[in-house]
Amino acid sequence: MNTPDIEHELDQLRQKIDAIDDRFVSLLAERRELVEEVIQLKKKYRLPVYHPAREENLISQRREQGSGERLDPDFIEELYRLILRHSRVSQSQELSRKATKPGATILLVGGSGEMGRYFHRWFNAAGYRVRVLDQHDWDQVASLCQGIDLALVGVPIEVTAEVIRNLGPYLPEEAILADITSIKELPLQAMLKAHRGPVIGLHPLFGPDTSTMDKQIVVKTPGRMPEQCQWLMEQLNAWGAITVTTDAHEHDEVMAYVQALRHFATFGFGRFLYQQKADIFRSLEFSSPIYRLELGMVGRLFAQDPKLYAEIIFATPERQKLLKSYLASMVEQIEMLNKADKEEFCREFSCISEWFGPFGDQAMRESSYLIDKLIERF
Question: What is the pLDDT of residues 12-22, one digit of tens each?
Fold first, then answer.
């Protein structure tokens, strides 16, 4: 077959592919129109954006369908997760403009801080009246608190309890008093003592650089009158956030590992690289994707405000005790290194692997996905 014949046949096949692509885009547009109808129903009945069970069922069905059509089910899953995420983000953006308590007034205590400004944008976009109380505004505290429906405290951990005590006498009894501090026991106790009305503790597990609340977790620790706080929870859900309920004690125990220990270990790794004067850019030329990912998390930590991490790491004596135990555990390994005891290492490794159990398989799947994405990106 000569070249003109090959080009003609390829052109015909490409035209058919283009026609399929046209239909594909048209179907996406048709799907988007139906999503708009879903948004209107969710607005009307104040339903959450994220429906985990439906999404996972849909993904499973599409994977099975893809296999039946001789398509890679992982490719089908990735495609549909992208479509579903885009749908959720669109819904969140639309629903964020609707207040679950129309006409309510919000007081952001510490509203000029990064998280304060973040929530200011979201509340303002939903049509709430937003006021800000910062350290230089306490001479106006009485007028700023007048008629408010929610006081949201977002100040440094070490002054949170004091700020709550000073704020309490000025709050309307029916107003919600909430905080967004990364520890919960002490702030919740302070809020319950300072305010007779509804109280709830919140911990957003994301930072102010988050562009969307889609599937972002907000931990809530009920304090008093949870039914009076329901509109606030519905508002977070309307923005796409997932709320996880726990008591303040469990929250602080879990966060000691999730935040304090993780950040301290990352700090220690970065500090050691600094002390060794390691050439991190040269190391990336030899790196595996997993090393790049780990080093990226270290670099991310040191690109941010040290005061934020100092607050989290040194927040409570319990956290400091845990971190000392972590360092002591590391020191215990010196003897094994001195003896180059591979057998002991393997015994320890096997015990820990057994303790992790099924999570090991889950971790392999999730980290492999992240590695594949990193390879695509770089």
Answer: 999 999 999 99
